[in-house]
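Appendix B. Chain record.
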Amino acid sequence: MERVYLLEDNTYLRKDGDNLVLTRGREKLEEIPLQNLKHLVLAGYTSLSGAVLNTLINRRVETVLLDSRFQFRARLHLDEHKHVQRRVAQYLKLSDPAFAAETAKQIVRSKLKNQARLLQLRGRQNTDETLLSLAAAVRTIGSSLKNFNSLEMLRGAEGHGGKLYFQGFGRMIRHPEFHFKERNRRPPLDPVNALLSFCYTLLTNEVLTAIKTAGLDPYLGSLHEPAYGRPSLACDLVEEWRTFLGDRLILGLINRGTIQPADFVYRSVTNTDFVDEEDLKQKRPVEMKPRTRKAFLQAYEEWMQRTVTDPVDNDQTSQRRLILRQVHRFRKHLLGESDAYEPFPWSGLR
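Structure tokens predicted for this chain:
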């Protein structure tokens, strides 16, 4: 398999012949063949043997480390992409306020358009006038962006549109036992928010990997301000995928009954600050059970490998490959090979 997710806490990863072996104490939890392994995600606290680290480097396995809240911590840094001129172009272009604002405008417009499209689709399917009204309101905000010339105004419009979108998100959930009132995070307070946060983290890492493949710097973007440790460009370019890839997947899993409320652990928590891993375990208001995480990741992988038509090149490719193609199109924009960056055009109400 090309992609492996190891989500067990307090584990040890060692090499055994042509395999990686995950253990906790003397218990063997999982065995991963090294053949064809290209991407490894480790969540929580997993110790690596020197042999494993050396193998991952030599085989150039993209290795991502997430914390126990499944937020990005670090990645195994191999060598920088050799195309220095690409990063130079990125620094110069995104340091230009006018260029950065116009790029951010395209990103926000696409995000709002996708949100409005999903609200409209589900409003029509369910004959829900509230969803249709919210779709019109979000679309109106997107249409008003032509009058916005500053990043502050664009961020405000994005925030307002997102608030309206998530007002309708709960109405798109058809499972009677799942409830959604508002978007919350760090930490998520209910199962739906836990699913959203987890899926958004996975998508951001997909984009981050594509950015590195394209030879760009993931830490300098336009819509998201530079901040220590935050991959701002990845946060920018994931926006066009949240609704199309993330929200549609989660709504499908919930509405089809693939995931149930009983698949989560619930805790009554008033203080979510923590001092160590064990303390954090007791302070998560809600989290997926281990088997639920595995089932979700399997569904996610199947979803990302799903074949679709690229509306730009008009050929068949995987949804994961679409992300890489879009990042390469963004790179062309930075290099002046295209007049403007066009985020993924989700065509049709499907």
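Further analysis of this model is presented in Appendix C.
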